[in-house]
Amino acid sequence: MGDDAWRKRQLWAESVIGLRDLDAITEADRETLFREYDGMQQAIQDELHAAAPEFGRLARDEGRDAAEAWMHARMHALGVERGRRLKQVLAGLSIADQLELDRSA
Length: 105
Description:
Elements: H1 3-21, H2 27-62, H3 64-91
């Protein structure tokens, strides 16, 4: 994990730990949030690793702009998927009734 990614995770972790210290979330919620964050980071790394060969091929054959557009579309799709998953995770937290989740989607 790079220094910037580690620093961002530490700041995020401090926020979650603070919520737990205030009894705003349960210990199970805290663990769920940590697991989801780490899973999201791992999914991004896995996607980048899996996409690297195709990105290289596209950059060679169709140009860097085409390769970057393709990668952007893949990362956007991953973001949408992980956003849906996060919404489901948040709906399962002990404080879900206090969160303003769009329940129509």
